[in-house]
Amino acid sequence: MPPARRSRTASPSSASGQTDLPALHLTRFLPYRLSVLANTVSHTLAKLYEKRFGITIPEWRIIAVLGGGETMSAGEIAQRTAMDKVQVSRAISRMLDSALILRESGDTDRRKALLTLTPKALAIYAEIVPMALTYEEEVTDALSIDERAQLDTLLSKLQARADQLAARPAPAGAQAEPAGE
Amino acid sequence: MPPARRSRTASPSSASGQTDLPALHLTRFLPYRLSVLANTVSHTLAKLYEKRFGITIPEWRIIAVLGGGETMSAGEIAQRTAMDKVQVSRAISRMLDSALILRESGDTDRRKALLTLTPKALAIYAEIVPMALTYEEEVTDALSIDERAQLDTLLSKLQARADQLAARPAPAGAQAEPAGE
DNA sequence: CCATTTTAGTTTCGTTTGAAACTGTTGCAA
DNA sequence: TTGCAACAGTTTCAAACGAAACTAAAATGG
Fold it and tell me: Among A107-111, B101-105, B146-150, which stretch is predicted with the lowest mean pLDDT?
């Protein structure tokens, strides 16, 4: 099956007199497809562990990176989970409330708090990891071995490129307000 | 480069006495990777049209499906954009405020409102589509022709499977509360 | 040293979201 | 017909979010 490149020249099917502009079909538009897929997957998984353990995605991510028993600072967690520090801060305070995490002020640098999972959280980790991996397998079961390798490659390449484009400063001369029609 | 299947048996690197459970590295975990990638892409793109036209993602999606000049109901928009009806309802009311959309009560069924883009919105469509397609191309430029075809296939397969798993009723006997650990 | 800047993390504020309740309309059935 | 279930869309309310302001503790450097 060829990729069916979207036609750049066909006008929208309506007979309106609009200029002959490239059509865009949401269902073939990569950002849309990624968004829908990621949403479906995350949502399904989140419901699984919300139901079972009462934790949210940010909390799960923190458990995931600390699950080895390591200790690290909030900033380091933020980096490793790709969440921003506000999100991490909030998740941590929830986890303190539910006794999932332990915070001790750093000795040498009292700005950095050292965070460690409690045994309760480690127990959750032990249960949740197999669940998560099982779900991941169920999804990737839709693919052949080759395709899984392809997926790995593609996601890496796309992420690298997306990061690069995100870092690029916004094209100048684009403002919303003074759009004098 | 082989896909480097995650080791199922190696214990976490820490020397703690935890049971020997499968490790999970977030950076190799599909739901996480999808979520981060989709987020990066959507965010970058959203900033682009937020800056240029002052519209949000839901609004952009509505413009995208109505861009051909067609008329449809809110429910149909919801289906086609994979947004839920609340989101659609809110986006529409914003678009009514900014004169991007036109709503007329259906004649035969007064529950269904017929929605059409205004010329102002069609003008935005004409400008935004090339921007969106350009961005998409910039991202997919990271891939070879073959890889683009692969991506198309993979996303379709994964979405189909994810939908299937999402529809499946939650596994019974999983409750958060009575975790008498 | 003291003043300034940088870093780590938290708080605040306004917005966005999602689930559930609600309003109005139509279709169906006694 | 009226009475009730199903449907289309909106509103409400509480939780979640992001940006920016803020606090506190190091690092820098005159």
Answer: A107-111
The rounded distance, in Å, linking the Cα atoms of B102 and B112 is 13
B24/A35: higher pLDDT: A35
Residue B19: the pLDDT is 53
Sign of torsion over alpha carbons A144, A37, B124, B112: positive
Residue among A90, A122, A117 at smallest CA distance from A101: A117
Q: Quick check: B167 pLDDT over 90?
A: no
Torsion of CA B25, B31, B37, B43, to 10 degrees: -120
* Band of residue B109 on the pLDDT scale cut at 50, 70, 90: confident
- pLDDT at position A177 is 40
Check CB contact under 8 Å for B159 and A69. no
Q: How far apart are CA A23 and CA B68, in angstroms?
A: 8
Please state the length of chain B: 181
Domains of chain B: 29-165 (1.10.10.10)
Provide the CA A24 to C1' D21 distance, Å, integer: 41
- Per-residue pLDDT for B10 more than 80? no
Q: Which stretches of B45-124 are assigned E, i.e. beta strand?
A: 101-105, 113-117
Residue A171 is predicted with a pLDDT of 58
CA–CA gap between residue A119 and residue A117 (Å, rounded): 7
Q: What pLDDT sits at residue A154? A: 97
For residue A40, CA distances in Å to A20, B81, B135, B152 come to: 35, 14, 23, 17
Chain B partners of A22 at a C-beta cutoff of 8 Å? 129-130, 133
Q: What is the CA radius of gyration of chain B?
A: 22
Which residues, 6 or more positions from B49, have their beta carbon under 8 angstroms from its beta carbon? Answer: B55, B60, B128, B131, B132
- Distance CA(B33)–CA(A94), nearest Å, equals 24
Total beta-carbon pairs less than 8 A apart between chain A and chain B: 259
- Per-residue model confidence (pLDDT) at position A131: 92
